[in-house]
Amino acid sequence: MFSTLLLLSLTACVSASHGHAPNSTFYNPIFPGFYPDPSCIYAPEWDHTFFCASSSFNAFPGIPIHASKDLKNWKLIGHVLNRKEQLPRLAETNRSTSGIWAPALRFHDDTFWLVTTLVDDDRPKEDSSRWDNIIFKGKDPYNGKSWSNAVHFNFTGYGTEPFWDEDGKVYITGAHAWQIGPYIQQAEANLETGETGEWRIIWNGTGGMAPEGPHIYRKDGWYYLPAAEGGTGLGHMVTTARSKSISGPYESNPANPVLTNANTTSYFQTVGHHDLFHDRNGNWWAVALSTRSGPEYLHYPMGRETVMTAVSWPKGKWPTFTSISGKMSGWPMPPETRDIRGIGYPLGQRQHPRNPHLHPQIHSPAHLTHWRFPIPSSYTVCPPEKPYTLRLTPSTLNLTALNGNYAGPGGQTFISRRQQHTLFTFTVDLDFTPSRFEEEAGVTAFLTQNHHLDLGIVLLPRGSATTTTTTTTLPGGQQKQNPDEEEEQADPDELVPHVRFKGESYVPVPKSVVVPVPEGWRGGKLMLEIRACNATHYAFSVGPAGRRSLMQRVLEVSNEPVSWGFTGTLLGIYVTSNGRNGTTPAYFLNWRYVPQEQFRD
Ligand SMILES: *[C@@H]1O[C@H](CO)[C@@H](O)[C@H](O)[C@H]1NC(C)=O
Ligand SMILES: *[C@@H]1O[C@H](CO)[C@@H](O)[C@H](O)[C@H]1NC(C)=O
Ligand SMILES: *[C@@H]1O[C@H](CO)[C@@H](O)[C@H](O)[C@H]1NC(C)=O
Ligand SMILES: *[C@@H]1O[C@H](CO)[C@@H](O)[C@H](O)[C@H]1NC(C)=O
Ligand SMILES: *[C@@H]1O[C@H](CO)[C@@H](O)[C@H](O)[C@H]1NC(C)=O
Ligand SMILES: *[C@@H]1O[C@H](CO)[C@@H](O)[C@H](O)[C@H]1NC(C)=O
Ligand SMILES: *[C@@H]1O[C@H](CO)[C@@H](O)[C@H](O)[C@H]1NC(C)=O
Ligand SMILES: *[C@@H]1O[C@H](CO)[C@@H](O)[C@H](O)[C@H]1NC(C)=O
After folding, report:
1. Any ligand 4 atom below 6 A from CB of 263
2. Could you list the residue range(s) of the whole structural domain that residue 241 is in?
3. Which of 289, 396, 520, 560 is the most exposed place for a label (fewest CB within 10 A)?
4. pTM over 0.90
């Protein structure tokens, strides 16, 4: 009896002090790695699921979609842009900052809508062909085939978003190309045909650089119009305006900027480009992009990632945001569940299959990524001559390709996954017997065509080794009593396989390192490794496969060369004939990405 009373009174005490579920704790980034410009919705009709889209630039498949029912366990469920015929022009983008910018994901009338821009950043800003504005629609985000081909509409700008007003009219709002703006424009639109009415300026922002990523929300009789300003670097911020009429005039929030980490010492910088959504309890949340760089802004190989924060938005008032950090507190979250359909792995899961390529479809698992469209015949899973491997046939062009910007119809033989952890180890075994000059296969930390760090096996004349660094001799190679004498007698033009490190970046990279593959390792499989030893450096290593104790470090290199611009580092494998005629395939197996640590402050 006593204990029952005690229990009752304790229960009463607990419910009196909390009323309902306690506030939540969660961690940023919610999508680590190259997932910028997030746009999220809550779809009660879809089993109360949240869906988010992100920018993908030249990566293919493009426009990744994450889903969650509890805002904690997220899963990459697929991609809006998953077939070449949806948007053939992605093959022709001519710059590393080109491709898919700033998608807006919305759900209306039982249909998912995705409005975005394919940017060809090499063309003048005022040239409308630079901005290919497009609409995709789909009925089932778990089924890539359900996404339509792109419907194009005319707008000289980007960051476009659809909005359905209460009177049935449909609008698109976007950021006019800002060097001849800057301003936010809007037009009535037919999303089925891409026809638009007259574009009108509705807001000029608060005077920050590049007002972009506008969204419209209707709440409590107001049209709210938030945007990103200040550019996507350290000055990035969220500003808001509102109006009683969709077409304005919009008055700026006196509290602007309402969300930014500019001028702070936070590890999370560049916070901006947000989207708002609410959960089933009517509590509001925001997602935004952020860069884990600290104000030094030198080392951020994972680029612009997706972060989340709680938003207070009382009736008739402006929304206010909790500022972004690694550990966050916010509204109570929906009950925890990992029950999400779809093909990807839950984020945060540590185990990854040893060989994801041994799946009949190259785009499963969902996280595997190419740069523009792959040529399918260049990738063979389980080729008959070497089962249990992935066979890659070389592209003529290497990862830099012609000008660091364009790759042409020959494409690039490259497959990768995002770096998603501060510390990780990425290894793969390579079975490759090059037969022609400059045939090469290897691993890469790839940000863009003009920012990548590669460790390859390449066929070069015997006399090619670099001699200026202490790392140019792999100890495993010193099996001969007198290697120098041996070298002198050998034909210096004879082609032998070499280990080569080569970097490409706008910031200084170490000189190439070229070392002959030790005699004792030739003819066997080699293990290639990229490891993030700390938050600022990668180590590149090589050794005979299956003999970890013989692994040799080729060099340590700063990740500054891949901390730049709009994208984030991809870890992958490539095969190329470096502009020549070579056709020798390379075979890869035992692909492993082992997450080790996530830095949040
Ligand atoms: C790509 O840019 C280069 C100059 O960097 C130019 O020569 C080439 O014609 C361009 N290609 C396309 C398809 O725009
Ligand atoms: C876009 O503009 C071009 C050139 O003015 C025109 O031919 C085309 O019909 C327009 N497209 C749409 C969807 O309005
Ligand atoms: C925005 O700026 C443009 C160009 O300076 C100006 O013509 C326009 O009146 C401004 N619009 C608003 C809504 O402030
Ligand atoms: C950060 O500081 C600079 C220099 O004082 C100032 O111009 C800028 O407006 C500040 N940015 C924000 C978002 O507070
Ligand atoms: C719970 O989180 C919301 C959103 O951040 C905040 O407004 C509220 O004050 C928090 N409540 C408590 C009890 O901490
Ligand atoms: C990170 O590793 C590099 C290479 O080993 C080293 O030079 C650098 O001092 C390390 N940085 C920190 C913060 O430990
Ligand atoms: C890529 O190939 C071109 C020739 O097509 C060559 O000039 C360049 O050095 C190569 N770059 C790398 C990083 O190997
Ligand atoms: C490739 O092969 C063709 C035909 O044999 C030859 O004409 C051409 O010079 C070769 N190109 C290179 C870069 O070796």
Report:
1. yes
2. 36-252
3. 520
4. yes
